[in-house]
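[#protein-structures] MJ: dropping Isoprenylcysteine carboxylmethyltransferase family protein here for a structure pass
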Amino acid sequence: MLPSLLIWFLGATATIVVERMARPVQRRGTPTPAFLTDAVLQLTLAVALAGPLLLAIIVPRQATVGCLVSGSFLVLAGSALRAWAMVVLGQRFQLTPVEQPDVPTLIVRGPYGVVRHPGYVALLAQFAGLALILSDPLALLFCAPTIAGTVIRIRAEEQLLTREFGPTHETYRQSVRWKLVPWIY
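AK: finished. structure tokens for Isoprenylcysteine carboxylmethyltransferase family protein:
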């Protein structure tokens, strides 16, 4: 159990470090629906982070080598993808989505040329990996609320981007059809 907890702690730390790379949120203008989804997403992320940890404490199990390896891979790959997405977005990256008239470019390159929301793909991979590291695939159930929160957040962000970029965003949506996972969603 101790090695799993140590690996989980390192993975959780990597997730937090990647998030800290972000610029501080600059709240400009009127709150948007995307802005209002922050609390929902933060709550679901807390469940995805704490749930597997509590499960591992209440029902101690030694994680299998497969869970440790696949979980560690998901955390590392998710962290790398999230950092890449942040770098590609540059000044457009915000933890809380807001319209940014001072940065009037829709980013369509890098991971954004494959799916429209690679940062959320990365976040879901990180938290799924953390769940696997601590327990077994059953712990992935704690990620379900985060998936729902992410879908809600994406809807709000898509509305914001359509308002901000109009036909340019519609063209992008047609060329990059998938929001999170190619051929699925």
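MJ: nice. The radius of gyration is 17 Å.
AK: one more thing. Helices lie at 2-20, 33-36, 38-58, 65-89, 118-134, 144-165, 167-175.
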